[in-house]
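step 3/5: co-fold with hypoxanthine
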Amino acid sequence: MEPDVTPTSDPFVAAHAAAAQLAKHTGAERHHVAVILGSGWLGAADRMGDVVAELSVTDLVGFPAPSVAGHAGVVRSIAAGPKRILAFLGRVHLYEGHSPATVVHAVRTAVMAGCRVVVLTNAAGGINREYSVGQPVLIADHINLTGQSPLTGPTPPAPFDIRFVDMTTAYSPRLRAAALTVDPSLAEGVYAAFPGPQFETPAEVRMAARLGADLAGMSTVLETIAARHLGAEVLACSLVTNMAAGLEPGGIDHDEVLTVGRQSAERMGGLLAEMIARL
Ligand code: HPA
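step 4/5: write tokens
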């Protein structure tokens, strides 16, 4: 399938065009909940409802092909009772060389497709020593150490011409409370986003711990900023795939990160599907 809209350099116009393509190809005038499935979360893709349509993101304007192993580059339209879910199987990252606008394009497209709730999932290193590998942690707040924002640049076109977005309740207390009704034992933590792609040094992990971080990762925060800018509510959850550098003897191996992700897929899939049903 060829994109049927001329690519554009304005990210808001591109997201609007991609949302129109989605509506056409999925037959759904609007979607309600967007889900971005990061490493370790793809197991949820088959458990959220009935898959009505599946497209490659590269069939939509503005999406590059994903390049990281374990990230599939597919978007599904899923019917779950009265709700339509847009599930992105995989994301793109700053460390692949993409701009902040490209990194948040899926979120902007989903919000323009009607989603007022955005659910972000990722794999992360555990900084909080009370966490263990394989554990899901709800993100309560973040520290953006990437030095980047999707809102840098000219003032966005109206009605998106808000510059100074309030991040006080970036991770919706309402949605976190709903998630906690599914699993009251879920931990909550602060996610520190590093630019990557190298894992952190032990000194960087100690720094993040002193700053108040519980989790280290390389995604999510720019997507949260973009979703809040467009007025959508955000729920985010990390899967702890390893303890962060220096907390345990030995190094960190990306294959191990992927293995833990695969091993936890079943459990995370069930948890996420149940959470989404309650949003
Ligand atoms: N650091 C950053 N990102 C990650 C990690 C980590 O230790 N594990 C999985 N994603």
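step 5/5: annotate
DSSP finds seven helices and nine strands in the chain.
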